[in-house]
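Please decode residue identities from the backbone states below.
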């Protein structure tokens, strides 16, 4: 738990050692369990802004799925990967504690569909998911609401890097969880939601084939079904892609890619349009930004504890172990002695 707290703050062992006035070797032995940290527990908690009770938890720590697992981006700093994994595990623990007094209602429980067992393509699974979630034909106005109706808890947090879009955890006893990068543009965020949904329903076991490509195909078909968008994408150019972007709630790049998959534009035309987007420096931040979809379940659970159960700020902090996640400055903890002048 010391390691999880430290990595959530993006601290090294040397940072923590400096903050509590111990050697790095001592911190290392604390984390390895070779030396009891009881004498420094309060100092460790104070330095990293956690409640002491956090370090007494004995819950399992989970690895992460989705993009975090499958993209394997070698250039993502190890510190960033560890921070995201630590924060997601802490949020999982917080959700578990909140659910002891409240519950997430599954109006339409999330199914699990393995492509290799059902002999279905990712596109067909996406179409089945639209039916399972009772999404009407046409553009999806608010994907987050449909995901939350299926009992998925969506967290939007700042990952500290733009190189990780999202990840997920699906384990028995807790609702499925998605963790999305808050700094993504609105259109990218919606695609990430659909992408992670694909991982949740198709890849909760070791996948066969290219999991990333399957999730991308699933996301595109969920948001922009081929049977419904074909006529819109004929003779697609950048002006039409910009016009259709707010209609379908996806990026211009997604529309261009889907048009190529439908073969209503050629692969050469696709490359040309993408190159023009790149030349205009619109690949990262496209024009006509879409509104970011905010989740509500986790905040509603916290509000339930405050308003219905009457917990004050101190009680909420003890329940959730900390006021906030993310990095904090390394500050040494003052140590008082009987002879302090």
């Amino acid at each position: 738990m010391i390691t999880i707290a430290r990595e959530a703050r993006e601290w090294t062992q040397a940072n923590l050692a400096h903050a509590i006035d111990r050697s790095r070797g001592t911190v290392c032995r604390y984390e390895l369990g070779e030396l009891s940290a009881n004498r420094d527990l309060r100092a460790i908690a104070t330095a990293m802004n956690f409640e002491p009770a956090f370090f007494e938890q004995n819950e399992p720590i989970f690895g992460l799925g989705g993009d975090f697992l499958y993209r394997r981006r070698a250039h993502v700093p190890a510190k960033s990967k560890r921070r995201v994994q630590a924060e997601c595990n802490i949020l999982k623990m917080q959700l578990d504690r909140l659910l002891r007094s409240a519950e997430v209602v599954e109006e339409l429980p999330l199914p699990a569909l393995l492509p290799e067992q059902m002999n279905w393509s990712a596109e067909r699974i996406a179409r089945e998911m639209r039916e399972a979630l009772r999404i009407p034909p046409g553009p999806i106005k608010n994907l987050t609401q449909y995901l939350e109706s299926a009992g998925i808890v969506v967290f939007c947090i700042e990952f500290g890097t733009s190189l990780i879009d999202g990840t997920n955890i699906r384990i028995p006893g807790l609702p499925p969880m998605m963790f999305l990068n808050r700094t993504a543009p609105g259109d990218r965020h919606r695609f990430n939601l659909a992408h992670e949904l694909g991982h949740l329903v198709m890849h909760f076991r070791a996948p066969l084939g290219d999991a990333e490509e399957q999730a991308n195909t699933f996301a595109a078909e969920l948001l922009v079904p081929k049977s419904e968008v074909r006529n819109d994408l004929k003779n697609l150019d950048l002006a039409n892609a910009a016009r259709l972007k707010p209609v379908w709630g996806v990026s211009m790049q997604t529309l261009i890619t889907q048009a190529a998959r439908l073969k209503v534009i050629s692969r050469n035309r696709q490359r040309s349009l993408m190159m023009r987007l790149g030349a205009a420096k619109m690949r990262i931040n496209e024009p006509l930004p879409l509104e970011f979809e905010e989740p509500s379940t986790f905040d509603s659970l916290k509000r339930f504890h405050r308003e219905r159960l009457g917990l004050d700020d101190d009680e909420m902090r003890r329940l959730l172990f900390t006021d906030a996640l993310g990095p904090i400055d390394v500050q040494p903890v003052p140590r008082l002695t009987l002879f302090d002048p």
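Observation: The longest helix spans residues 78-98.
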